[in-house]
Prior knowledge:
Order of helices and strands of chain A: HHEEHEEHEEHEHEEHEHHHHH
Order of helices and strands of chain B: HHEEHEEEHEEEEHEHEEHEHHHHH
Largest sheet of chain B: 6 strands, mixed, barrel
Distance between the termini of chain A: 30 Å
Oligomer: heterodimer
Helix content of chain B: 40-55%
Mean pLDDT of chain A: 83
Number of helices of chain B: 12
Radius of gyration of chain A: 31 Å
Structural class of chain B: alpha+beta
Low-confidence stretches of chain A: none
Radius of gyration of chain B: 32 Å
Low-confidence stretches of chain B: none
Number of helices of chain A: 12
Structural class of chain A: alpha+beta
Helix content of chain A: 55-70%
Number of strands of chain A: 10
Largest interface: A-B, 50 and 51 residues
Number of domains of chain B: 2
Distance between the termini of chain B: 30 Å
Shape of chain B: elongated
Largest sheet of chain A: 8 strands, mixed
Shape of chain A: elongated
Amino acid sequence: MKEELKYVIQNISHRKLRSGLSILSILIGITAIFALLSFGFGIQAYIDSIASEAGVDKLFIQARGIGAPGTDQNFFISKEDIDFVKKQIGVNEIVGLYMKAGEIESRNQKRINFATAFDTKYLRLVEESFAIDIAAGRSLGLILGDKVIINSKEFEIVGFYSSVGNPQDDANIYMTKQAAEELYGEDIKDKFGFAIIRAEKGVNPTELAERIKEKLRKHNNQEEGEENFFVQSFEDALQTFGNIITIINSVLVLIAVISMIVAFVNIMNTMYTAVLERTKEIGIMKSIGARNEFIRFIFVLEAGLLGFIGGILGVILGFIVAKIGGTTAANAGFSLLKPTFPIWLTLGCIAFATLVGACSGYFPARQASKLKPVDALRYE
Amino acid sequence: MIKDYFLLAYRNIIKRGLRSWLTMIGIFIGIAAVVALIGLGEGLRGAITAQFGILGTDVLSIRASGIDFAGPPGTAVINPLKDDLVDKIENVQGVESAFNRFIDSAIVEFNEIRDTGFIGSVPTEEDRKPFEEMLNLEVEDGRLLRDGDSKRVVLGNNFKDEDNRFRKSVIVGDRILINKEIFEVVGILKRKGSFILDGAVFMNEDVLLDKVRTNDEEVNIIAVKVRDENEIERVKENIEKLMRKERDVDRGEEDFIVESPQAALKSLDSTLFAVQMFVVIIAIISLLVGGIGIMNTMYTSVVERTKEVGIMKAIGAKNSAIFSLFFIESGLLGSVGGVVGVIMGLIFSYGSAALGRAILGTSLIQAKVSLPLIIGALAFSFVIGTIFGSLPAYQASKLRPIESIRKVI
């Protein structure tokens, strides 16, 4: 085996330029695939971590209607709905949230963001659900105690939440229920756009969601399909989101795989050339006793080695590309887009590249192995 | 002379049969992917942007600023537009007419199936005609709304489909329930190609305010028709001036937006374009790989024909002639790959669009392969062939005749 490997490496390094180009062609594809997959797995890992921490016992009710929750005034969850759900078996606690557009002004800069308000008695429940944490808070250039103006009323900043990883949610303003009622007027009082429920220990949130949906519907005398709300567990909602991301990512990876097909053809081409060039050599090897399998093996090995080297270099380059991409995204506020590099992704990419190389070498290798020694020796 | 070059290049390509094909496969897979993806993206973008209804060049829309994409315009806003503003805007110089538009959501029921839907207002009395003209509202069946149609509605064309969300085609004379109240359908609009307009219920303004609206004074959007479309920028500034005064804000701190539908469309279109470009860049990677394949083949070809080049040079061929010979050969490889690739791309994009439409049942999936795209793809494949072929060609042109002839491969 060592002898064969040495022979193959000699051949590859003999044709430096052409081997280099073949390796380059496979490397480019692997780079793209590795980088795209690392982002896909990063997002999936992020979703899983939230789902297992925040989402395990929580579900939400959202008012139906068109647009973001809380913006459609024709549909809302009433105080009465909240009280009714609170009494259901399996419900530990429930909190209604206001979600309104708020214009925040600080140092003569104005921005319009969502303002979320809720009863602070349920602070823990909300923080857990949104995976935010005061202790790990950010400072955003503003400092504690700074005054900001929201919808032309002055507010004091008492804390900053940790980053969720996307610019919309990280721009959220959180205030108490009372403050929101003063700010937006009596009109909005007890008309919630969103409510979070904590299930009792051991209760399956998905099943509880179904039950609450049915009970609340009957309570409000609504027929099936007529509900002005919908109930879902956090875990299911996150999974839906995760599935969409996976589909998008798969499409991109599929497109990148096209370049691997082209690389496959390239290596095949290089190997056919190599067979032609070495016809005489093959003839000599055969005439001194080399078997067909041996000839086939060395050509497949050579092609596989080209793929292997391309794979390793591609993974390295892909790692760099993903790191740069991740840093750029984080700087733009999307720290959610964080690539992860599981070891099996690295190994998988290298194995895939090697396999593509070896397969593309198969037909040229078979052609080489079938050469007749006498003809091969005579070949010019 | 040039003809001879082509003939030689052609013969060489043919002679290396399998290898030439393999080289070209690389290019045509890449070109096919790029053509198909741009074609599908173009079609999809066209279909999506066509959704945004009013596209007159003499129209402006006014809305309060807020969080974009949080629902219909005017939902997640800080300081909503008031309904008395429209009269003042109508008096602005250059404005022909201005209308309040109320867009609401409600539960719509038909065939015992309920769903949330958009309800749009139609102004009454003397405002009706100009509004209908601005939105280009025409009925396919029945008639448009009239004053006093208090229990009647006109529906978008989607309601007529057999497979609509109510699983039954709505026809003129049918009754539908909106927030549990019975309305008679008096007309179905012609298809507009916009899922918002085609899926909307139209109601007289007074009826909408009475039956659906919870907050009467707030207006979602004010639509303005200007007298002369060449003056649109001036009118826009005039309106902004008035609005600043009315809402007591300084220049640069406006809490409202006045824009033409084209401007609104542009930002959406540029987002879609960015997404499309990202996908295409990933596809172009495979073209790059194809180009490397050409380079590889050409280097091989130079090595193989070293002796031949030496002989050509010995009988008087100039460096430039040798260069042209190889250059044309690689350009030919690229071009042929491009032609096949474009054909494959055309088949793939139109085929998959038709398949997508059949499976998903939406007319949104369209393919549009334009002539510039085809020409661009062909030119690009030729350029790839020549760029990647120029280095090997240069190497061939620099070969020394004596050494070349002596060389044993």
